Amino acid sequence: CGDSSDEKQDSFCGKCDFETDPCKAFHELNLHPGWIRRNGQSGLGPPYSDHQGNESAYFLSLSSEMRPFSATLRSKVFLPTDNELICQITFHYWLSQKHGTLMMGLQKHSEGTFTNLWQVSGGLQDQWKAKTIRINSTEKYEV
Fold this sequence. Notes:
2 domains, 3-stranded antiparallel sheet, 7 strands, globular, MAM_dom
């Protein structure tokens, strides 16, 4: 949340950390093939910790068997926003491939089209980075 209320236990805004499941934000059926829930101790290679340096904390990762294919994560359906209620999504990402693109987009519930909101491509970066996206939509949508 913009006012940091998502840091509180009884927050209206949701916070997702993947510790117990693929996250309340993502329906289990929408965790498409290729995504795995793992931590730095899994022995699967970097990253060896989450974005805060915790080796036992969980995060989502693309399975090495999926390369060079693509995999999709789809959120739950969010309600329309207005001037007072704006959706702000902050996520941490790690790129360890020389080639590839990570994209985040919006699909309005009434349409089948995907609107690209952000993307980053290629380059061996081997470090966690954070990105915050603000979304305004007059219709129900998924990201």
